What does this fold into?
Amino acid sequence: MIASEDVSIESKEGAEEPSGLAAEPGLDHRSGYVALVGRPSVGKSSLVNAYLGQKIAIVSPRAQTTRNQLLGILTRPEAQVIFVDLPGIHRPKHRLGELMVETAVRALPDADILLFMTDVSVPPTLEDRDVAKLLKEQAADRPVVLALNKSDLLKPADVVAHTDAYRALVDAADWVLVSATRGDNLEKLLAFVVAHLPLGPRYYPPDQVTDQQERFLAAELVREAVLHHTYQEVPHSITVVVEEFKERSETMTYIGATIYVERESQKGIVIGQGGALLKKIGTSARQSLEQALGCRVYLELWVKTRPHWRQRDEELRRLGYTPSG
Ligand SMILES: Nc1nc2c(ncn2[C@@H]2O[C@H](COP(=O)(O)OP(=O)(O)OP(=O)(O)O)[C@@H](O)[C@H]2O)c(=O)[nH]1
Ligand SMILES: [Mg+2]
It folds into this structure.
C-alpha cells in the first residue's frame, strides 16, 4: 500500500481556523452526523466546501456529480458537525445511478439530522417531492432542517411562492434561505443545525476535515476537470482511476491516472483534436491538485474504453463503486 493512502486530509494552512480548538471541549459540546439530502445539483457539495473553506468535494454544473458518500468535518469550539455529503436523489437510468441513490438512502438511518437541500430559485421538481417522501418514510423521528439554497438566483417576485412551496413539502424543524457560493446565511444555518445536535464528544481530531484519502480526492479532481470540459452524455460516462500516487520529493508528487469512457467515440472526444482537450483537462486538473495537496504535481493522464461500465456490477466494483460509498 502506498503511504499516501493512509493520509487523511487536514485543514489547509491559511484556511480560517477559529480559536479555542486546542482546548478540550466542555460538557455542553455537541456533535453528530448531518446528512445532506436533496436532488442532484442543488449545491450539497458546494455547501460542505463553503463550511470547510477548502475543496474536499468536487462540484460541477452537471447533475449527479457526487457518486460516493464522503464526510466533511467542521470543528468549532462548541460543536463538531460531521456533514455527510451524498449523491443526489434521482430516478436512475443505469446501475451506477441505482448504486448512487442506494448510497444516499442507506445513509439516512445513521444521521442525527437530515439537512434537506433545495434550489429555491426554481419551484420544487418531481425529484424534490421524491426526497420529501423519503424523509417522511425514513426519518420521521429525526429533525429535518430545510436549506433553501441558491437564494442569490431567486427573483424577488418568486420569494414567497417558492419558499412556501418547499416548506409545504416537509415538516421542517427550521428553515433558512442560503447561498452556498456567496456565503449568505451560512452561520444562521449552522446555528440551527448545531442546536439540534445531541451533546457529545469530538469524534475526529480537530484538524481533520474529511474521511477520504488523498488518492481518492486526486481521482475526483481529475473527474471534476473532465466534467467541466465535456457535455451531454460524456461527463456521465467517465470515471477516473489513480494508478500511481508517489511523493517524489517534499515539493513534488507524481500522479498517473486513467480516464475511463464507455465508447471509442467518447475517447476521441475526451482526447480532442491532436490531444488538445486532454491537454486542457490535464492543466486544469493539475492546478486543482496542486492547490489541494499543497505541492507541485506532475500529472500523467491516459484515456481508455471500458464498454458499458456503468451497467455492470463487476466493473462498478472494480472501479470503486459500492452502495455504502
Ligand atoms: N448561483 C449559485 N450557484 C450555486 C450555489 N450553490 C451551488 N451552486 C452551483 O450549482 C451547481 C451544482 O453544485 P453542486 O455543489 O455540485 O451540487 P450537488 O447538490 O452536490 O450536486 P450532485 O453532487 O450532482 O448531487 C454548481 O455549478 C455550483 O457552482 C448557490 O448558492 N448559488
Ligand atoms: Mg455533490
Q: What stands out?
A: The longest helix spans residues 276-293. The longest strand covers residues 239-249. The pocket of guanosine-5'-triphosphate (ligand 1) is lined by residues 38, 40-46, 59-61, 63-66, 87-88, 149-150, 152-153, 179-181 (CB under 6 Å).
